[in-house]
Specification:
The complex is a heterodimer. By secondary structure, chain A is mainly alpha-helical. Chain A has a single domain (70-278), classed as MetI-like (MetI-like fold, Orthogonal Bundle). Chain A is 73% helix and 0% strand. Chain A is built from 14 helices and no strands. In chain A, helix 3 crosses helix 13 (247-267), helix 8 (157-168) packs across helix 10 and helix 9 crosses helix 10. Chain A is flat. Chain A starts with a helix and ends in a 5-residue tail after the last helix. Chain B is an alpha/beta fold. Chain B has 2 domains: 42-178 and 349-390, D-Maltodextrin-Binding Protein, domain 2 (3-Layer(aba) Sandwich), CATH 3.40.190; 181-345 and 421-467, 3-Layer(aba) Sandwich (D-Maltodextrin-Binding Protein, domain 2). Chain B contains 20 helices and 11 strands. Chain B has helices at residues 2-24, 28-51, 57-60, 74-90, 106-116, 127-133, 156-159, 187-197, 207-220, 231-247, 263-278, 285-288, 300-303, 317-323, 362-374, 376-382, 392-400, 406-415, 430-445, 450-467; strands at 64-71, 94-101, 122-125, 166-167, 170-171, 174-175, 181-186, 225-228, 307-313, 329-332, 352-355. In chain B, the strands form 3 sheets. A 5-stranded mixed sheet of chain B has the order 2-1-3-11-6. In chain B, strands 8-9-7-10 form a 4-stranded mixed sheet. Chain B has a two-stranded antiparallel ribbon with strand order 4-5. In chain B, strand 4 (166-167) and strand 5 form a beta hairpin. In chain B, helix 10 (231-247) packs across helix 19 (430-445). The chains are: A mainly alpha, B alpha/beta. The A-B interface holds A 67-69, 110-111, 114-115, 117-118, 121-123, 125-126, 128-129, 132-133, 136, 141, 216-217, 220-221, 224-226, 229, 233, 236-245 and B 2, 6, 9-10, 13-14, 17, 20-21, 24-25, 28, 31-32, 35, 67, 69, 71-78, 81, 97-105, 108-109, 112-113, 115-118, 120, 350, 387.
Chain lengths: 283, 471
Amino acid sequence: MLAKRKNKTVNRVFTYLLIAVIGLALLYPIIWMFFASFKTNEEIYGSTRLLPAGFSFHNFVDGWKGNGVYTYARYFFNTFKLVIPVTLLTLVSSTLAAYAFERFRFRGKNILFAVMIALLMLPNSVLMIPRYSMYSGWGWINTYLPFYVPAALASNSFFIYMLVQFLHGIPGELDESACIDGCGSFRILVQILLPLMKPALFSAGLFQFMWTYNDYLNQLIFINSGEKYTVSLALRMSLDAEAIVNWGKVMAISFIAVLPLMILFFAAQKYFVEGIATSGLKG
Amino acid sequence: MKKRVIAALMAAGMMLMMAGCGSDAPKTDSGTSDDSVEKTEEEADAGAESGEAPADAASSGEQVTLRFSWWGGDERLQATLGVIEQFEELHPNVKIEPEYGGSDGYADKLATQLAAGTEPDIMQIDPAYMSSLTMGDTDYFVDLLADGFDFSQFDENYISMRVNGRYDGRQLGIPTGMSGPALLLNQDLVDQLKDEIGFDFTQPFTWDDMIEWGRKVHEYDETLYLIEDNKDMIEAIMLGIYSMQLTGGTYMDEETGQQRLSVEQWTELYTMVQQLYENNVVPPTSYMAAYSGDALQTDPNWIAGKYVGAFCHNSLIANMTAANPDANYSAGNLPVMENAIVGGWKANCPQLMAVSSRSENIKEAEAFLDYFFNDPAAQETLGVVRSTPATSQGREICEKIGVLDPVVAQSASVLEQYTSVETDKLSSSTEVQQILRDQIEAIGFGVTTPEKAAEETLSLLENYVSSLNIQ
């Protein structure tokens, strides 16, 4: 009995050790980035030590000043001005589209659904030129409209698909009983289904936030003037191949740039993990 | 039944997608320029018409906005914004909107803009990318030569090369700077040995002269060598140039993959290499093995001043001179064989500036570039943020204000004397480089003869070309 318990303890210690080692290995790049933000170029190249020689915040201060035209305060403001509306609009539009596909019967629904699924497989690079010429024809270049409008029109079929799958797992009997109690279809969505969909909405929101936040190419192509630049565009400017790169500064700003994502992820972790785990299940 | 229809539709859709991914996706770039061909033709006409608009709108007071895009780091940003500000002060009616960013994705963005017709009026372009933008019937850029742009500050030899913006007699881009090979000399040692050896690097000389001087230098003092060079630099600088002087072209034809050099000519090239080693013009291969690639300045003998000179890229001159700061340096002339077809020595530019042919304000855009390249104040502001300036005036100014190393400036002036031909992507590929470096090393160690090396090289090059499936 005792031996068995001891065995269990050893097992558990071993498991936690393994998890800790893997976790550390996965976290190491971020840890390294954090400490590198206190180093000079010479220290980054010249030494393999993880800890910097001294903790001075001048890389953060200098880095924040940016390239002398705008500071990173401007770029972060722009990023949130772009990312937050895109995330919210995506959630609203995708929920409505998913609700329609999952709970209503209408002519051509299956064909439309098939087309939407097929769109999942369309690579972004194929859409680039047609989208660009369309948007430039409408005068949307150098505005955030190429990001807002597609989000408001649920153009990312991945989220619709994900929410449809999740809605599929919520029993239709709930809708029916709400209907008997006198709810209209919109009220069923808002008052009955939305609270139940929270995990899926959180994961969709997190994904969209992360993807838009990290996206470089689309922002590069649709945004021209420096005053509208986002963090990902501004950061890449400090990394020019033909200039001397001050890596400490780049690391400092990169670390600040990943902070919102990390905070958001930890804050919403409970829902996020639940959302991924259950969205594929049938009720 | 319905399900089956949908399944069939989906399958068809998927096959379409896969076909799309398989063949079209990697070619997005070329697809881009193809698509844009038709568009460009009509719009280029429109552009040409607008180009004939009132010539001096710049002074007429009509408000004009120009877009100017470039990539680069923070220093370049500051300097370029400074020049824009100066220009706007001189021309209050012109407003220039800067569109700057990192080099990452710049070419993709430009391709998209050109395809959609929304490119900036003034663009910085990578010369390697420029040729694909000028292919076929595309007419994206203004011919600055036809428009009478003032090129008097530029060397005609330099700007007339395709890589520097001259395509079929039309100047579609202006080179922003120059970089290329140089013969960096330890001037103290040159002065010390001048009477003894009888060399003069300020006059034209041949490869044979150089080999003779090298032999004498090493005979005079066994610790000294004329040239510091490893197999990589011999391949990258000497062999390619020697071949151009001999045949007037690169090793291979880029279009057909045809070999330009016969076995005899390869033998001649390798004989030159063998003589470098046999006459102790360069240090032994075994010694230089520790200082390969760009690491010439780490050789303790260079630091101790045991070499009269070294062939290196002029972007490395600052590193080389910093390794032994006690010595004085200069940039020498470069060897050219008797009856050479071309000089072969050449500089390339890191970026081109071009004006869109669809711009509504071509005259103002050209006026800005004129200021950008030809005005002393602009040169002073820009300094060397786009490498060594391509104009002699720009170099003088940069030297005066102390941002340009005088030896680098001298090496740029030296390069301007020679005529050259374009490099091609086959001859400068890493595979070809490796083939040649292996042979040079074998000759250096004395385990092969120039004849054997020549035969082997030719068969390896033919193998390489046939693996590429060029028609």
